[in-house]
Amino acid sequence: MARRNLLTVAAMFAFAGAAALTVRAQAPVSYARDVEPIVVKACANCHGGDNPKKGLDLSAGKGFADLTQHKSQESPLMALVKPGDPAGSYLWLKVSHTATEGRGMPRTLFGAKKLPQAELDTIRDWIIQGANP
Ligand code: HEC
Fold this sequence. Notes:
Layout: H1 2-25, H2 31-42, H3 63-69, H4 90-95, H5 117-128
Helix pairs in contact: 2-5
The structure holds heme C (HEC).
The site of heme C (HEC) has 24 residues, from helix 2 and helix 4.
Protein backbone atom coordinates (compact mmCIF):
# COMPACT_ATOMS: atom_id res chain seq x y z
CA MET A 1 0.00 0.00 0.00
CA ALA A 2 2.78 2.43 0.94
CA ARG A 3 4.50 1.62 -2.32
CA ARG A 4 1.34 2.31 -4.22
CA ASN A 5 1.02 5.74 -2.60
CA LEU A 6 4.60 6.50 -3.54
CA LEU A 7 3.86 5.62 -7.15
CA THR A 8 0.84 7.89 -7.13
CA VAL A 9 2.91 10.77 -5.78
CA ALA A 10 5.61 10.12 -8.39
CA ALA A 11 3.00 10.10 -11.14
CA MET A 12 1.59 13.42 -9.90
CA PHE A 13 5.03 15.03 -9.99
CA ALA A 14 5.65 13.70 -13.49
CA PHE A 15 2.34 15.17 -14.61
CA ALA A 16 3.08 18.56 -13.04
CA GLY A 17 6.47 18.59 -14.76
CA ALA A 18 4.95 17.81 -18.13
CA ALA A 19 2.35 20.55 -17.64
CA ALA A 20 5.07 23.09 -16.83
CA LEU A 21 7.00 22.10 -19.98
CA THR A 22 3.86 22.47 -22.06
CA VAL A 23 3.26 25.98 -20.77
CA ARG A 24 6.80 27.04 -21.72
CA ALA A 25 6.53 25.41 -25.12
CA GLN A 26 3.42 27.52 -25.82
CA ALA A 27 5.51 30.69 -25.83
CA PRO A 28 7.82 30.34 -28.83
CA VAL A 29 10.61 32.90 -28.93
CA SER A 30 11.33 34.64 -32.22
CA TYR A 31 14.53 36.56 -32.98
CA ALA A 32 12.77 39.36 -34.83
CA ARG A 33 10.02 39.87 -32.26
CA ASP A 34 11.73 39.05 -28.95
CA VAL A 35 15.52 39.06 -29.18
CA GLU A 36 16.27 41.81 -31.69
CA PRO A 37 14.72 44.62 -29.63
CA ILE A 38 16.94 43.60 -26.68
CA VAL A 39 20.22 43.57 -28.61
CA VAL A 40 19.43 46.66 -30.68
CA LYS A 41 18.87 48.59 -27.46
CA ALA A 42 21.74 47.14 -25.38
CA CYS A 43 24.41 46.17 -27.92
CA ALA A 44 24.11 47.87 -31.30
CA ASN A 45 25.82 51.10 -30.24
CA CYS A 46 29.07 49.09 -30.19
CA HIS A 47 28.07 46.13 -32.37
CA GLY A 48 26.83 48.20 -35.30
CA GLY A 49 27.77 51.08 -37.56
CA ASP A 50 30.78 51.08 -39.90
CA ASN A 51 33.10 49.07 -37.64
CA PRO A 52 31.10 46.78 -35.34
CA LYS A 53 33.14 45.35 -32.46
CA LYS A 54 34.59 41.92 -33.32
CA GLY A 55 32.80 42.15 -36.67
CA LEU A 56 29.54 41.30 -34.90
CA ASP A 57 26.71 43.52 -36.16
CA LEU A 58 23.66 43.38 -33.90
CA SER A 59 21.83 46.33 -35.46
CA ALA A 60 18.30 45.91 -36.83
CA GLY A 61 18.12 43.44 -39.68
CA LYS A 62 21.74 42.27 -39.28
CA GLY A 63 22.00 40.38 -35.99
CA PHE A 64 20.20 37.16 -36.87
CA ALA A 65 22.53 36.26 -39.75
CA ASP A 66 25.65 37.30 -37.85
CA LEU A 67 24.72 35.32 -34.75
CA THR A 68 23.53 32.14 -36.45
CA GLN A 69 26.13 31.83 -39.23
CA HIS A 70 29.41 32.80 -37.59
CA LYS A 71 31.89 31.32 -35.18
CA SER A 72 33.18 33.37 -32.28
CA GLN A 73 36.34 35.35 -33.02
CA GLU A 74 37.42 35.22 -29.38
CA SER A 75 36.83 31.50 -29.01
CA PRO A 76 37.11 30.18 -32.58
CA LEU A 77 36.07 26.63 -31.74
CA MET A 78 32.64 27.84 -30.61
CA ALA A 79 29.68 28.99 -32.63
CA LEU A 80 28.20 32.30 -31.53
CA VAL A 81 24.89 30.46 -31.36
CA LYS A 82 24.50 26.68 -31.35
CA PRO A 83 20.76 26.02 -31.68
CA GLY A 84 19.43 24.07 -28.70
CA ASP A 85 22.61 24.48 -26.63
CA PRO A 86 23.14 27.69 -24.62
CA ALA A 87 26.30 26.33 -22.95
CA GLY A 88 27.73 25.65 -26.40
CA SER A 89 26.85 29.16 -27.62
CA TYR A 90 29.50 31.86 -27.12
CA LEU A 91 26.79 34.55 -27.16
CA TRP A 92 25.31 32.96 -24.04
CA LEU A 93 28.68 32.77 -22.29
CA LYS A 94 29.19 36.50 -22.96
CA VAL A 95 25.77 37.68 -21.76
CA SER A 96 25.77 35.37 -18.72
CA HIS A 97 29.29 36.63 -17.87
CA THR A 98 30.81 33.14 -17.92
CA ALA A 99 33.15 33.60 -20.93
CA THR A 100 36.85 33.46 -20.11
CA GLU A 101 37.87 35.94 -22.86
CA GLY A 102 37.19 39.67 -22.71
CA ARG A 103 34.42 41.14 -20.56
CA GLY A 104 30.83 40.16 -19.96
CA MET A 105 28.32 41.84 -22.24
CA PRO A 106 27.06 44.49 -22.38
CA ARG A 107 30.40 46.12 -21.60
CA THR A 108 30.50 49.50 -19.96
CA LEU A 109 33.28 52.08 -19.89
CA PHE A 110 35.10 50.50 -16.96
CA GLY A 111 33.47 47.11 -16.53
CA ALA A 112 30.37 45.21 -17.52
CA LYS A 113 26.79 44.96 -16.42
CA LYS A 114 24.24 42.21 -16.91
CA LEU A 115 21.02 42.42 -18.85
CA PRO A 116 17.86 42.18 -16.71
CA GLN A 117 17.02 38.55 -15.85
CA ALA A 118 13.88 38.54 -18.04
CA GLU A 119 15.98 39.52 -21.07
CA LEU A 120 18.58 36.85 -20.28
CA ASP A 121 15.76 34.30 -20.06
CA THR A 122 14.48 35.39 -23.48
CA ILE A 123 17.91 34.94 -25.07
CA ARG A 124 18.42 31.55 -23.40
CA ASP A 125 14.95 30.32 -24.40
CA TRP A 126 15.54 31.51 -27.96
CA ILE A 127 18.70 29.37 -28.17
CA ILE A 128 17.05 26.36 -26.45
CA GLN A 129 14.11 26.47 -28.87
CA GLY A 130 16.45 26.28 -31.87
CA ALA A 131 17.33 29.95 -32.56
CA ASN A 132 14.43 30.64 -34.88
CA PRO A 133 14.09 33.82 -36.95
C1 HEC B 1 30.54 49.42 -24.96
C2 HEC B 1 30.65 48.61 -26.16
C3 HEC B 1 29.95 47.25 -26.18
C4 HEC B 1 28.66 46.96 -25.85
C5 HEC B 1 27.56 47.88 -25.34
C6 HEC B 1 28.48 45.53 -26.13
N1 HEC B 1 29.64 44.99 -26.59
FE1 HEC B 1 30.00 43.04 -27.11
N2 HEC B 1 31.94 43.44 -27.41
C7 HEC B 1 32.54 44.68 -27.29
C8 HEC B 1 33.99 44.54 -27.41
C9 HEC B 1 35.01 45.68 -27.33
C10 HEC B 1 34.24 43.16 -27.59
C11 HEC B 1 35.61 42.45 -27.68
C12 HEC B 1 36.29 42.46 -26.29
C13 HEC B 1 35.54 41.75 -25.17
O1 HEC B 1 35.04 40.64 -25.37
O2 HEC B 1 35.43 42.32 -24.07
C14 HEC B 1 32.93 42.49 -27.62
C15 HEC B 1 32.74 41.14 -27.83
C16 HEC B 1 31.50 40.52 -27.92
C17 HEC B 1 31.28 39.14 -28.29
C18 HEC B 1 32.34 38.14 -28.73
C19 HEC B 1 32.37 38.11 -30.26
C20 HEC B 1 33.20 37.01 -30.82
O3 HEC B 1 33.20 36.84 -32.06
O4 HEC B 1 33.86 36.27 -30.06
C21 HEC B 1 29.93 38.91 -28.21
C22 HEC B 1 29.21 37.60 -28.51
C23 HEC B 1 29.32 40.15 -27.80
N3 HEC B 1 30.30 41.11 -27.64
C24 HEC B 1 27.96 40.30 -27.61
C25 HEC B 1 27.39 41.46 -27.10
C26 HEC B 1 26.00 41.57 -26.77
C27 HEC B 1 24.96 40.47 -26.95
C28 HEC B 1 25.82 42.84 -26.27
C29 HEC B 1 24.56 43.43 -25.72
C30 HEC B 1 23.90 42.68 -24.67
C31 HEC B 1 27.10 43.52 -26.32
N4 HEC B 1 28.03 42.64 -26.82
C32 HEC B 1 27.30 44.83 -25.94
C33 HEC B 1 31.90 45.88 -27.08
C34 HEC B 1 30.58 46.01 -26.65
